[in-house]
Amino acid sequence: MKLIQTTDAEGAVLCHDITRIIKGVSKDAVFRKGHIVTKEDIPVLLSAGKDQLYVWEKEEGMLHENDAAEILCALCRGSHMERSQAKEGKIELTASCDGLLKVDNQGLKAVNGFGQMMIASRHGNFAVKKGDRLAGTRIIPLMIEEERMRQAKECALRATGGRPILELKPFVHKKAGIITTGNEVFYGRIQDTFTPVIREKMREFGTEIIDHVTWNDDDKKVTASILDMVKKGADIVVCTGGMSVDPDDKTPLAIKNTGARVVSYGAPVLPGAMFLLAYLEVKEKGTSRTAAVMGLPGCVMYARRTIFDLILPRVMADDEVTPEELAALGQGGLCLDCPVCTFPNCGFGKGV
């Protein structure tokens, strides 16, 4: 650092906070360490009693924290994201639409493993609203080696395959069908309290319910209804009940017999172990699309949060779930059924 006259400070980088005291009004930093002095700042600095300043000298091969933060921001920022201005080596990203946040963990680790720089994000595979904070970047020192930033950038891009570390997938308008199963409901022995839960959860995503049928424990009827709903344009078909191992529980067989590709029957999540997820390829007029078919266990009807709450946002964003991703939900897959539910601001569903 070097000492200069304040009147000559335009473009210089402050080495420390500049505090201004106004008796009875305030005592605070008027400029922070790392601030780049503008022409308009000079009268303010003089009024704060700063006729001289300690500033950083430009060194070959070194980057100012804000310039380095721009590199981290570029590595992180995907589509549908707004960014803040760089300040003290920090840049924040926020969502510009409702959607599903995806985080490339390998790219995140690549950057954070270099030291003197960091990226902190919210957990991936969860829904976010427009305006939600997604991530923040920070350069730790005031100045950082340009070579270190170059290496971090190369390492991150190698880990992500050249893609941004963060991706925001907008939610897509979906059409859905609901198939309620069970002799007890079909024959009017009990009231259907399952379907209203599904309708409410789908309403949060603006889903259009195009069909709803109720069947007894007849797998052939359920299979036919799944295929019929998809033919009518359903992007999602949800089958409620019939997911256990009792003789009358035939929903898994019904889904399998549609020809759908079953991702998994069973998930390491409580509540929701007997969940089934499948994808059905649909060919229409020379084009093809994929419909998600889900078999929901009874816990979805009465538990506040279940496996359905973890998978539904991904389905709504056309983010296909793999068997490996379902298996990874084991760590964090136990809902603690807290007296006051704070989901998604809790550990439920936040696996490795």
TrEMBL record:
Domain of life per record: Bacteria
InterPro entries the record matches: MoaB/Mog-like_dom_sf, MoaB/Mog_dom, MoeA-like
Cofactor(s) recorded in Swiss-Prot or TrEMBL: Mg(2+)
Species name: Enterocloster alcoholdehydrogenati
Reaction(s) the record says it catalyses: adenylyl-molybdopterin + molybdate = Mo-molybdopterin + AMP + H(+)
Function: Catalyzes the insertion of molybdate into adenylated molybdopterin with the concomitant release of AMP.
Statement: the UniProt record of this protein carries the keyword tRNA processing: no
Keyword Metal-binding: yes
Keywords: Magnesium, Metal-binding, Molybdenum, Molybdenum cofactor biosynthesis, Transferase
The protein's name: Molybdopterin molybdenumtransferase
Pathway: Cofactor biosynthesis; molybdopterin biosynthesis
EC number assigned by the record: 2.10.1.1
Location of the MoaB/Mog domain: 177-317
Family of the protein in this entry: Belongs to the MoeA family.
